[in-house]
Write a structure and sequence with these properties.
Elements lengths: L1 E3 L2 E4 L7 H7 L9 H11 L2 E8 L5 E10 L7 E4 L13 H12 L10 E3 L4 H4 L4 E12 L4 H6 L3 H13 L3 E5 L2 H17 L7 H11 L3 E8 L2 E10 L3 E9 L8 H15 L4 E8 L3 H8 L4 E10 L6 E2 L6 H8 L3 H11 L5
Parallel strand pairs: 5-6, 7-14, 11-12
Antiparallel strand pairs: 1-2, 2-3, 3-4, 4-5, 6-13, 7-12, 7-13, 8-9, 9-10, 10-11
């Protein structure tokens, strides 16, 4: 444990003060939980550190999570947090964030970190951490209106009618955390990633999230008969449901399988008295995904990642991606695509 004044660097997974701190912090999310950090460690080996300030009683009064990624392929760095769309610094103001990051930034060269990256929701924290690096759109859906009011806000042609078509077509929903559901979800995940020209996450990642988060993680799949058609993978806290992954078999798009399973997720969240659906980030160069989220009535806001040292102007995520790699992925057999994901994901995030 490293003390510098009242700033402390510590392991949040081993410090008993972290759990009560995040449990009572209004801006803490499922990504601040030890269970999420443990899934990252078990799957990819990422070591988590936290920076915090302590009160006179010894309790934490603020905290910033960071994961250390050590990679011969992409370089060593600190990221808050890998494979997490956002991870809000749990601080009082931007000045406190600058103070905490200055502490760890002093050790950047000594520990051979190329940069330190944070992914705050609050825009004022982006400029406090060096400078903007990537920009996305972050969507949230307010679940406080009644189910009937939420349904009326849905786009008539793209969402409402497709839900009704799915119901008339006899699609069914199964949800839970079983091995069978995971296998069906992963099949759809591989299909979708291949369509998107991106390697799939390893199945071990999803298995570890389910194991570590327990009932706070859920797979929900729409079936046509016994065939999986569309699925969502969600994370849950007391007030929020996080739509983390979505995937589908495009041959069933005409039946409205994805809107059907998505609406079931919303109704289930309402039934559990959740207040908000976190629909995650969207690349600025993916207008189709942005439009899909807006047609559910979700509100978007800028989501800006920042880095120390500063790197210049804000870039759209996805700009400059490798067209050669995408061309190769288009024609990869599934086994090779899955192997590529296992090899690459420990180096990214």
């Amino acid at each position: 444990m490293d003390l510098h004044g009242d700033i402390m660097e510590f392991d949040p997974c081993g410090d008993a003060r972290w759990l009560p701190f995040v449990s009572h912090h209004a801006r803490a999310t499922v990504f601040h939980r030890v269970s999420w950090l443990e899934a990252l460690r078990q799957t990819y080996g990422f070591r988590t550190i936290a920076l915090g300030r302590v009160s006179s009683s010894g309790a934490l009064s603020s905290g910033v999570l960071l994961c250390e990624i050590r990679s011969w392929l992409t370089g060593n760095r600190l990221v808050s947090l890998p494979f997490s769309d956002h991870c809000e610094p749990l601080v009082e103001n931007p000045e406190e964030l600058r103070l905490l990051l200055a502490h760890v930034s002093q050790q950047r060269k000594k520990r051979n970190w190329r940069y330190i990256e944070i992914r705050p929701v609050s825009p004022e924290y982006s400029n406090a951490a060096g400078g903007p690096y990537r920009k996305f759109v972050f969507h949230r859906l307010d679940l406080r209106p009644t189910t009937e009011e939420l349904f009326r806000k849905l786009h008539v042609d793209s969402i409402r009618r497709k839900i009704q078509k799915a119901e008339k077509s006899g699609l069914t929903i199964r949800s839970g955390r079983s091995d069978d559901l995971l296998a069906d979800f992963f099949r759809l995940h591989v299909l979708t990633r291949k369509r998107q020209l991106s390697p799939p996450h390893p199945i071990a990642w999803f298995r570890n999230v389910l194991k570590c988060l327990g009932e706070s993680a859920c797979i929900r799949i729409a079936y046509v008969g016994e065939t999986p058609a569309a699925a969502v993978f969600t994370l849950e806290s007391e007030a929020t449901v996080v739509y983390k992954y979505g995937c589908s078999d495009e041959q069933f798009h005409r039946l409205g399988a994805m809107p059907f399973v998505f609406w079931d997720m919303i109704r289930e969240a309402k039934g559990a008295n959740r207040l908000e659906l976190d629909m995650g980030r969207s690349d600025l160069d993916n207008p189709g995904l942005i439009t899909f989220k807006e047609r559910w009535g979700a509100q978007g806001q800028p989501l800006i990642y920042s880095r120390l040292p500063a790197v210049g102007n804000v870039l759209e995520h996805g700009a400059g991606s490798g067209h050669t790699l995408q061309h190769l992925l288009r024609y990869c057999p599934d086994w090779l695509l899955i192997s590529a994901g296992k090899m690459l994901y420990p180096h990214i995030g």
